[in-house]
Amino acid sequence: MLPSRRTLAVAASVVAGALLLATPIAAVAAPPTAPHERGNLPDLLFQKDPLRVATFNLSLNRNAAGQLVTDLSTGANAQARTVAEIIQRADADVILLNEFDYVDGGVAVDLFRENYLEVSQNGATPVDYPYAFVAPSNTGVASGFDLNNDGAVGGGDDAFGFGLFEGQYGMVVLSKHPIVESKVRTFQNFLWKDMPGALLPDDPATPAAADWYSPEELAVFRLSSKSHWDVPVKVGRHTVHVLASHPTPPTFDGAEDRNGRRNHDEIRFWADYVSPGKAGYIRDDAGKRGGLRALDSFVIVGDQNADPLDGDSVDAAIDQLLDHWRIRDTEPTSAGAVEAATLQGGANAAHEGDPAYDTADFADGAPGNLRADYVLPSITLRPVGAGVFWPVQADPLSALTGVFPFPSSDHRLVWVDVRVPRLAL
């Protein structure tokens, strides 16, 4: 363990409150300036060096508790080496990792940093993240109820979030900048029913409304399929709130669309959290109410499992963020995604969305490749570059993404570069 390393591991009972590749940053197209920003905020108000924020569903989950620790205990695991190289080549300052099994005490993330990220992979420059945040996930946590209404209680589908064991498909935030540990907020236990106007699923076999879950089930049913985290990161004098989550896939259900509706409301949580006047109902795991202040800087990151135009998510689920007045969509793209959609065909040929925005390589028959992963900065941050790590096949680095069965993940790393205000807020 490096002496400077600080992993904030929160126990269940204690809550602390294509990439650049070889291409220089100047060659990456900067997103257009938002109309309300043109002519405003002079350049000198922003820090000189951009902050790179990334999200990566790296599929480093395992099918049994303890297996991830075993796999990361040496530097020999092929998949871990591949996803580590992608992270090294991205060289983000702050990155959210989805589908990284939660292990109490931060053991797994420490092993991943020491044995993989801080060791050159295939000639890539090692990357050091002295700060990390990990916390429990709702995945695999037994509810004690028959949540899927199949007549039996038990198994991953009756957990508060689908998982074969507690912590499967968890999350990690890694940072080169200090995490403000005393200000971290988690929302693992927030109840779905406590969201005003929640899209609670309806049992189509009964005349009653919104009755898929019984009153007893709703009294304990948590909104987050994993968790929602507000992880403040200190960048110079300014604080950037990293808002991390991984909503449930809007599939693997029936006509009641319980997962699609939950996905919608997991996304809505952040839309309300960053909206002054709408977050009063939100209570974190320490009992504090409310969301962000009007001038707070933030970046929403994660595999949101929702595409603006295609796939199975509830209509306009992700638009709750993309169209939000406090959020900027820099629309990261890659040439590799366009090539993949053309070569794979299938459902991709009928998609409404531009394949350049795709971030996930899903089954060709259905749903096809989708935009599922997002890095969405607040309007208080100034974007200067963005992209998706999805090289075309002629690029040697395409070996890192590959084709099914993937050597790394079916998702691609997404990054956005922003300039952060100089002043503390």
From TrEMBL:
Residues in Endonuclease/exonuclease/phosphatase domain copies: 55-411
Superkingdom: Bacteria
InterPro entries the record matches: Endo/exonu/phosph_ase_sf, Endo/exonuclease/phosphatase, TAT_signal
GO molecular function: catalytic activity
Keywords of the record: Signal
Position of the signal peptide: 1-29
Protein name per its UniProtKB record: Endonuclease/exonuclease/phosphatase domain-containing protein
Lineage of origin: Bacteria, Bacillati, Actinomycetota, Actinomycetes, Micrococcales
